[in-house]
Amino acid sequence: MKLKLILGLVASFSFAAAQAQITPIPAMVTRAEGEPNTFHELSCKVGRFSFERYTANLPEAFREEAYLLTVTPDGYKIEANTETGKARALQTLRQMDFCGEIFDYPRFAYRGVMLDISRHFRDKDFIIKQMEAMASVKLNVLHLHLTDDAGWRIQIDRYPLLTRRAAWRKGASWKEWQEGGQQYAWMDEEGASGGFLTKDDVREIVAAGERLHIMVIPEIEMPAHSREVVDAYPSLGCREGSEELCPGRETTYDFLENVLGEIIELFPAPYIHVGGDEASRRDWEDCAYCQARMRREGITRISGLQSYLMRRVEDFLHAHGRRLIGWDEMVDYGLTPDATVMSWRGIEGGIEAMKQGHDVIMAPSQWCYINNAQDNPLTEPMGEGGYLSLERIYRYEPFDDVPPEVLKHLLGIQACLWQEHVVTEEATEYMLYPRIMAIAETGWSRAETKNYADFRQRAIRWTDALSIGTLTGKTFHPFNLRREFGERPARRADIDHLAKGCPVQYNMPWSPYYPAYGKTSLTDGRLGGWAYGDGRWQGFYSDVDVVVDLGEVQPIHFVGATFLCQPGPWIFLPSDVTVSVSDDNVHFRQVAVIPQEMLEPVNSYILMGAPVHCEGRYVHFLATRTKEWIFMDELIVN
Ligand SMILES: [Zn+2]
Fold it and tell me: Which of 370, 337, 321 is nearest to 479 (CA)?
């Protein structure tokens, strides 16, 4: 009895120690004595294995990647159902520094990374380099966002202007292009910036995918995010300069089918991603072609045109043996259950889609959009104002809130790197690493085996190996986790002050998009974190005009608040703050005017407050808007 207990402890200890070395954490680890020999292959069998002694009911969809790896002092043995399983075993072998047996298979069949090469182009060598790093942690899908307003990035023979015109712009960076009025250029024009993948480039990327067992999924955006297409081929829009394709004209369908036809020839993946997000449908309202299409097809609402377009595209893909993937807006399009949904606006769209019978890939922006800063935005590259630490990604649990009866539709998870603010190749790698490793582990390993502190140590080792080039033979530019600052210190503990818990009267409402905790938010003692969208910052698309009631007349020595400044997402400091006090909420005496003194807006968290030395019961706090947004977390009175 006692012996059994001791052996049990030893076994579980060994498991924890083994975990600490292999990423992502394998399903089952059994350690043995001796010095491992990971260089000598004793045997390698690829066939049909039941792995019965480990699990009698291994899910069918996983079987593909399952493997059994045995390492002894004499060498190693692999058993795998497929070449993919063997490739995963070899990745594990590279990390083995002990003898023993590993039986392993992924939790999810889909573990992806999306790279947006429209906003800033990346060439085939760079893309293949990232695929090699992905394979080292068993990520198995690369989703390439190939087309968007900022540039078309793939050769299509039938439409040469897509690569002679739509792939080039005035403005090397996305920001310069935006500020210059989103102008396109001819390929050979002086100052033209951009690029595209040739068909040979794509073939090399696909071949690398086959070698590394990574599926490459192309995304061709439609009907929105298509301004570059309409610029090159104006007859595809409702009007010249339109940002969306015209679903009324038949030429649009010819175009889409011709383009997708060439895409299907290039990419062997069973899935083709067709975007489908963020369509304003503005130009469709007064387009004669669109209106005629609605009459002819009996479509009554303008959104029905998008459903019509998506259904036609789905029919075309089906006819060519492919399946459609789209962003979660497409839940409303009435597609067949065969269409797969990528849930980005949170998890709700994904859950709704699963209930409708669609397969779903979870990529909720709150946990998976790695275009957000991974550390203190004051020291990070200019971004979109979000904050998404490695730890937050790692703690995302895809099963949360998903009803058990639809879980079979959850294919997996994906990190998305949108590159509007990611200008250089180095910056792309900085954003990817180590954060995609968290997606890899959540996608592969059982939730109950995950442990952030242990993972963080492995992430440091992984990024070290990437930086010095020992992992793939190429050197990368990852974020240095050792220098991580972490969440804004102010968010870590609540504060106390005279107005805490006091009622606040809003003379101007907060924005319904950024309510934080509503009417208690400015006096709840909770300060915001680095990101304006973290649920603690209250957003105003107006002046902040509030009165706090302290309950009784009392001495006041200080009034102030911290404001966000993040020029990326159009958040600015107020031009000034005016403080007045009153005993009766009718007659106010102005006690301070605090001017804003920043010379140029840069990412910052600025306390605008002043000593006042007066008495009163009501404190009127007026922060005057300069432009766009104001964000504030707490009105502090002392
Ligand atoms: Zn139209």
Answer: 370
| Neighbour count for residue 615 (Cβ, 10 Å) | 12
Please, which residues have CB within 8 angstroms of residue 306's CB and are 6 or more apart in sequence? 223, 247, 276, 279, 281, 333
Return the exposure string of 526-542: e unless at least 16 CB atoms fall within 10 Å of the residue's CB, then b: bbbbbbbbbbbbbbbbe
Contact criterion met (CB below 8 Å) for 105 and 60: no
Mean predicted confidence (pLDDT) in 244-260: 98
pLDDT score, position 70: 96
Give the mean pLDDT of the chain. Answer: 93
> Taking the CB of residue 318, how many other CB atoms lie within 10 A of it?
14
Residue 247 DSSP one-character state = S
Q: H/E element holding 565?
A: strand 544-565
> Quick one: how far is CA 41 from the chain centroid?
40
* Per-residue pLDDT, 1: 33
Query: Residues 581-606: pLDDT tens digits?
Result: 999 999 999 999 999 988 888 888 99
Which member of 145, 225, 409, 620 is catalytic?
Answer: 225
Please pick, among 116, 148, 243, 375, the residue that the annotation labels catalytic.
148
- List residues, by chain if needed, whose CB lies under 5 Å from ion ligand 1: 238, 246, 248, 287, 289-290
241: left (phi over 0), alpha (psi -120 to 50) or beta: left
Answer yes or no: 79 catalytic.
no
CB 237 within 8 A of CB 289: no
Distance, in Å, from the CA atom of 536 to the CA atom of 512, rounded to the nearest integer, reads: 14
Is pTM beyond 0.85 here? Answer: yes
Which residues, 6+ apart, have CB-to-CB distance to 520 below 8 Å?
504
3-state secondary structure 134-181: HHHCCCCEEEEECEECCEECECCCCCCHHHHCCCEEECCCHHHHHHCC
Q: How confident is the model at residue 16 (pLDDT cuts 50, 70, 90)?
A: very low
Cα–Cα distance measured from residue 17 to residue 19, given in angstroms and rounded to the nearest whole number: 5
CA of 195 to the centre of ligand 1 (A): 29
Nearest-angstrom CA–CA distance, 638 and 636: 7
Say yes or no to pLDDT of 193 above 50: yes
pLDDT band at 13 (very low <50, low <70, confident <90, very high): very low
Contacts of 50 (CB under 8 A, 6+ apart): none
| Gyration radius (Cα) of the chain, Å | 28
